[in-house]
Write a structure and sequence with these properties.
The complex is a heterodimer of chains A (237) and B (180). With 237 residues, chain A is mainly beta. Chain A is 4% helix and 24% strand. Chain A is built from 2 helices and 12 strands, in the order βαββββββββαβββ. In chain A, the strands form 3 sheets. In chain A, strands 2, 5, 10, 11 and 12 form a 5-stranded mixed sheet that branches. In chain A, a hairpin with an 8-residue loop joins β8 and β9. The radius of gyration of chain A is 19 Å and the shape is globular. Chain B is mainly beta and 180 residues long. Chain B has a single domain, classed as Aromatic compound dioxygenase (Protocatechuate 3,4-Dioxygenase, subunit A). Helices cover 0% and strands 28% of the residues of chain B. Chain B has no helices and 10 strands. In chain B, strands 1, 4, 7, 8 and 9 form a 5-stranded mixed sheet that branches. Chain B has a 4-stranded antiparallel sheet with strand order 3-2-5-6, with no helix packed on it. Classes of the chains: A mainly beta (237), B mainly beta (180). At the A-B interface, β1, α1, β3, β4 and β9 of A face β2, β5 and β10 of B.
């Protein structure tokens, strides 16, 4: 039986070494990564199911007795592979700062208010068409100490598994027109402009809810499969 | 023919993933009272030798028969209900711990556990493998492409509770990381 293999797409990915991000030089490995062919371990992966998702996990605005402050938004989109095929029944995890730009985390020292009605954590499973949807609050930008007057553009963290170890992805979704993009070393670590822009969601009027919430759509693309070789012998090295 | 789409770029997990990603049962690939359960304990260290207190470690492995809980395993999925996946954030001392079963050998490969490392400061996922000291590692095709002097960074050491495996991000004892 022919095992699938997954295309590498290095142009779309940030480098291991990116010193503009000041905590990178002390942590990034110095030796080059060792390229290995994909075998069974890499082309299989955890298929985590609905048991990981609780009843209010895809609506971050109803997880507490009161409503969180901020602009309600719906974030929706599809999880696809590199050939545009939907990835159904896959776990999507998100976490984010609140409307003031503060995370519900003891280590976040930004002196902006916490919101007792917002934890900033969500989970859902994609449906049969690879679609996901979260209702949440527009996250605020926040300062960090990377360089003088450094601010992170507003973003939502996303974690995805796909169906194979090689497809595992942790990324961030950004919002269109953010004036902070130019000075952010994390966003700009992606050198390919097309890939960089594909991290930015689109305002989606059709997904807004009148009198209730704005909406953004954002598709996530996991690595695609290589075409199965037809005649060539797999030399297995 | 469909046009290839640009793969979404990786971005750092950042310092605050602990609000959402850790699961109570994450480090327990199997329940601690499972017959044959082992503990794998280690630390993540940075280039200065300091512990990395904000890393997320994930593991993926075959069951004791060498099978993956996945439909692409050509030998059929595991019978045991063994999940094979673990997730553990490091603590203030950079320490992580998993409770699991030792994986069996795969066709042509020595028993191993695939490991993903995510942390603040790193924009991509780092991938490594845990091998076991008692196994014959001479014919493993992945270890074969690693410089011999560096192979020991991929081999756990035996400990009374199971195995010890430190992950050194940078420096003379730097762990070998793979591009998969």
């Amino acid at each position: 039986m022919e095992l699938p293999t997954y295309r590498r797409d290095p142009e779309s990915q940030p480098p291991v070494h990116w010193p503009d991000y000041v905590s990178n030089p002390g942590r990034a490995p110095k030796r080059p990564l060792v390229l290995i062919p994909q075998r069974l371990t890499e082309v299989t992966g955890p298929l985590l199911g609905a048991e990981r998702v609780g009843p209010h996990d895809n609506d971050l605005t109803i997880q507490h007795p009161g409503e969180p402050l901020g602009q309600r938004i719906i974030v929706t989109g599809r999880v696809l592979d590199g050939d545009g095929r939907p990835v159904p029944d896959t776990l999507v995890e998100v976490w984010q700062a609140n409307a003031s730009g503060r995370y519900h985390h003891a280590g976040d020292r930004h002196p902006a208010p916490l919101d007792p009605n917002f934890s900033g954590v969500g989970r859902c499973m994609t449906d049969a068409a690879g679609r996901y949807s979260f209702t949440t609050i527009q996250p605020g930008a926040y300062p960090w100490r990377n360089h003088h007057n450094a601010w992170r553009p507003a973003h939502i963290h996303f974690s995805l598994f796909g169906t194979a170890f090689t497809q595992r992805l942790i990324t961030q979704m950004y919002f269109p027109g953010d004036p902070l993009f130019g000075q952010d070393p994390i966003f700009n670590s992606v050198r390919d402009p097309r890939a960089r822009e594909s991290m930015i969601a689109t305002f989606d009027l059709s997904a807004t809810v009148p009198e209730w919430a704005l909406a953004y759509s954002w598709d996530i693309v996991l690595r695609g499969k290589n075409p199965t070789p037809v005649e060539e012998e797999d030399d297995d090295d | 023919m469909t046009e290839s789409l640009v793969t979404t770029s990786s971005q750092t997990v950042g310092p605050f993933f602990a609000i959402g990603l850790p699961w109570e049962d994450g480090p327990f690939v199997v329940a601690p009272d499972t017959p044959g359960a082992i503990r794998i304990v280690g630390r993540v260290l940075d280039g200065a030798g300091d512990p990395v207190p904000d890393a997320l470690i994930e593991t993926w492995q075959a069951d004791p028969d060498g099978r993956f809980d996945h439909p692409d395993d050509p030998r059929g999925a595991v019978a045991s209900g063994f999940r094979g996946f673990g997730r553990c954030p490091t603590d203030v001392n950079g320490r992580f711990e998993f409770v699991t079963l030792k994986p069996g050998a795969l066709p042509g490969q020595a028993p191993h556990i695939a490991v993903s490392v995510f942390c603040r400061g790193i924009l991509v996922r780092l991938v490594t493998r845990i091998y076991f000291p008692e196994d014959n590692l001479d014919d493993d095709p992945v270890l074969a492409v690693v410089e011999p002097a560096l192979r020991q960074t991929l081999v756990a050491s035996a400990a009374p509770y199971g195995y010890r495996f430190d992950i050194v991000l940078q420096g003379p004892d730097e762990t070998v990381f793979f591009d998969v």
